[in-house]
């Protein structure tokens, strides 16, 4: 399998290492071709080439052997690119140290980083980043293009809406519903539902900013 990573920043670097670890642990044939990035000053990353700008991906759209992983960290940018380049084949990347229950559903283009745990009955949307050490308990619904950052934990039956980001170390108690385009501050403890388009921080987490135009 040939793989190209979209983006050449820090997140893409971690994904590249993830793929190399998969190859090492499983013996699976993974040929990491390189990266695509719109910054012309970038020429290589991790001794792998920058193959061109993001639009160059279309050159590979008809090649059934080439798969893409979107390494862009920003949720909205990741969504825009995946929707713009829908003809590409997007793979799912899962680090070998991640623990994932058998019946978990994970959408195309999602990435599960080292040490993450995803328990039974959970559905992960497309283009989602589950970062290192995150814990997603049973029967969660994680919307498209979310980012569950390092060390964040959601208890059972939690819903997280599209494009939301749970900040580093966020804790969410059972049954909570978090809306779309929500961001929680690092170390927040969420004990109440959070509506769409909000920034919530603190222990317990309180909404400190809401986009009233949404």
Q: How would you explain this protein's 3D organization?
A:
- By secondary structure, the chain is an alpha/beta fold.
- The chain contains 2 helices and 24 strands.
Write the layout of secondary structure elements.
Layout: E1 2-6, H1 10-26, E2 31-36, E3 44-45, E4 48-52, E5 66-70, H2 75-84, E6 93-94, E7 99-100, E8 105-106, E9 111-112, E10 117-118, E11 123-124, E12 129-130, E13 135-136, E14 141-142, E15 147-148, E16 153-154, E17 159-160, E18 165-166, E19 171-172, E20 177-178, E21 183-184, E22 189-190, E23 198-201, E24 206-210
Parallel strand pairs: 1-2, 1-5, 2-4, 6-9, 7-10, 8-11, 9-12, 10-13, 11-14, 12-15, 13-16, 14-17, 15-18, 16-19, 17-20, 18-21, 19-22, 21-23
Antiparallel strand pairs: 3-4, 23-24
Question: Would you summarize the structure shown here?
Answer:
It is built from two helices and 24 strands.
């Amino acid at each position: 399998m040939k793989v190209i990573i979209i983006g050449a920043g820090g997140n893409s670097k971690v994904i590249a290492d993830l793929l190399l670890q998969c190859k090492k642990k499983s013996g699976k044939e993974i040929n990491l071709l390189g990266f695509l990035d719109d910054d012309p000053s970038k020429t290589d990353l991790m001794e792998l080439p920058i193959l061109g700008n993001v639009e160059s991906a279309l050159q590979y759209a008809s090649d059934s052997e080439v798969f893409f992983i979107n390494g862009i960290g920003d949720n909205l940018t990741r969504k825009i690119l995946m929707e713009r380049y829908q003809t590409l084949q997007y793979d799912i990347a899962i680090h070998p140290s991640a623990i994932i229950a058998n019946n978990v559903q994970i959408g195309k283009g999602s990435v599960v980083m080292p040490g993450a745990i995803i328990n039974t009955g959970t559905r992960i949307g497309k283009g989602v980043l589950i970062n290192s050490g995150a814990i997603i308990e049973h029967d969660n619904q994680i919307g498209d293009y979310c980012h569950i950052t390092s060390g964040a934990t959601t208890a059972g039956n939690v819903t997280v809406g599209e494009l939301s980001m749970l900040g580093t170390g966020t804790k969410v108690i059972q049954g909570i519903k978090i809306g779309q385009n929500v961001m929680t501050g690092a170390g927040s403890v969420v004990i109440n539902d959070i509506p769409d388009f909000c920034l919530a921080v603190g222990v317990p987490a309180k909404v400190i900013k809401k986009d009233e135009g949404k």
